[in-house]
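This section describes the prediction task in plain terms. A model, or a person checking by hand, is given the sequence of a single protein chain and must write out its three-dimensional structure as a string of tokens. No templates, partner chains or ligands are provided. The sample shown here is typical of the held-out split.
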Amino acid sequence: MAENSPQRVVVLGGGIGGQVAATRLKQKLGSAARVILIERSTTFTFAPSLLWLMVGKRQPKTITRDYSGLSRRGVELVHETVTGIDTSASEVQTESGVVGYDHLVVALGAVLDPERIPGLSEHTHHPYDLPSAERLRDALHRFTGGRVTVAIASLPYKCPAAPYETAMLIDGYLRQRGIRDVSQIAMYTPEPLPLPVAGPQAGYSVAAELAARGITFHPRTPLEGVEPTALRFGGELVPHDLAVVIPPHRPPDVIAKSSLAGPNGWIPVDRATLRTRASNVYAIGDSTVIPLENGLALRRPACSPTAKPKSSPRTSPAASAGTSGKKPSTGTAPASWRPVEAVGARSRRLLRISRAEGGDAPPWAFLACGEDRLRSSTGCGAGSETRPAKSPPGWRASIVLERKTRVELATSSLARRRSATELLPRSD
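The expected answer:
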């Protein structure tokens, strides 16, 4: 390239991450760079809204669009399939030829791989692409009651919150149709808690939300097999009338075969810059792996809550513990909080929380004592100071809240302080 010619920045993939990257780079660089986005599809689907389409709250035409808006923002759009990435030559191979680059942003996402598990495509549903979400919508419309199983087939998968949102949206949909009382919803996952990379506090918060809706939660339960009317977990067949299973994911072949890939086929990146092992190549979104100090890998899909590595401190409402109204950043309740054991079953609002194994009671089992009234067998006053106690094996607790009581969820910024009317469903 000529010395004074504009830099060429190539973005691979026209999902949310690719579009945002291309648009912002063009805004920042202006005439100093050509920004080229390569995307094989001519239509973009806004993936977070697929869950709403699943329950009839969105239509395909409202969540899809073409890519013409990018051209108006100065981004050059190329509809091609990427077949190779040569980092040594700074070139991208497509079905029609070679595209050179000065800088490359890889945003090719993850590929659904349902064929990895025999019978998964034939006997289950999922909302992770438009045709599948439409089929699930139709299946839910025909559903008249029975057993609904929502499961995560394997790890990793994109949009970590989506399976739990799926279960809760199905719960709301069945309630709206008046058939929730003749239906059971169960959630199965290989994970120890929902959203483990976001920390235990966020996980316990989501688990509490599931419990509040009567959705049974089965952690550490990987899917072992699929039958026409049952799923196999832990050597046992679990029958169902409707199964929603998030299929296995794999990296795109073009990434797995490139020099950018790590041992598992995903792209390891620097957690501060998202730069890959090639100095002029960056990667974002579902195709990346960001190693964390706790040994987990952080995945940063556009539709999931953002989690920060431990080495990147941030200020949040849950940054410190104490009695000044701030939520604690760890799983230990402050001294002014009191564990609430079993209380009366007849109240306006009820949250049932259960834990299959012994150990410390989780953060969401504690209610903040304060000016609001709390009716419990142990009592709780504004001046109470009781440290959390060890919970016995098979610990179970039911928390009954008066209408004005507030629940303090000791979570990250993922869960805000919410009133009981926002968090808990009516039980009367």
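For orientation: The chain has a mean pLDDT of 76.
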